[in-house]
Specification:
Helices cover about 20% and strands about 40% of the residues. It is α+β, with helices and mostly antiparallel strands. The chain has an eight-stranded antiparallel sheet, with helices on both faces. A hairpin with a 5-residue loop joins β4 and β5. The N and C termini lie far apart (about 40 Å).
Length: about 180
């Protein structure tokens, strides 16, 4: 018997699995249920972004923190741990969000915070460090979630441990695992 996974890339296998999960998922229609499934701390496991450079050696980890301030609004923060040369640190992309009538997340960028880690070297050219970090991120949506989310950020699968987020009207999907 032949191996059905033989010769396939990991991204193709994950894409197929995500498609299966999404087909079986019954979306949450209430903001309360959405907040239960989506709030907390998540680590980005995989991105289906066609412009993804997520194999970058400069990006150590990408996580997302979602906190609801009310039943339909709150804060979203993308956190990127990075290393460039002898510099290392954290990038925080701070956003606000509101849920629309269909429990899709409408995101507004608040600001970026870039900090050097303890014991990090100093960057001679900070602009080039930022450019290298941006190039290592999957697509542009981690740096600026509003660039692709004009039609809303839709959770297309969630089970308490994993979630799949479809970004806007694109075919980009991010797969997250809950870490806290």
């Amino acid at each position: 018997m032949s191996d059905p996974l033989q010769g396939k890339k990991l991204s193709e296998i994950l894409g197929s699995l995500v498609d299966r999960l999404e087909r079986s998922y019954v979306p949450c229609h209430t903001p309360g249920f959405y907040s239960i499934l989506s709030s907390g701390n998540y680590r980005l496991l995989h991105s289906h972004s066609s412009s993804s450079s997520s194999d970058s050696e400069n990006i150590k980890e990408i996580s997302q923190n979602i906190n609801f301030a009310s039943s339909t609004a709150g804060n979203l923060q993308n956190v990127v741990d990075w290393t460039v040369g002898d510099c290392h640190g954290t990038l925080r992309v701070n956003c606000k969000f509101e849920l629309d009538a269909f429990s899709r997340m409408e995101v507004t960028l608040a600001d970026h915070e870039l900090s050097l880690g303890k014991g990090s070297g100093k960057a001679e050219n900070f602009e080039s460090v930022v450019k290298i970090i941006r190039q290592g991120l999957p697509g542009g949506e981690v740096w600026d979630p509003t660039t692709i989310l004009s039609a809303g950020n839709e959770m297309t699968f969630a089970d308490g441990e994993f979630k799949v987020i479809k970004l806007g009207e694109s075919n980009v999907r991010h797969v997250y695992v809950k870490v806290g």
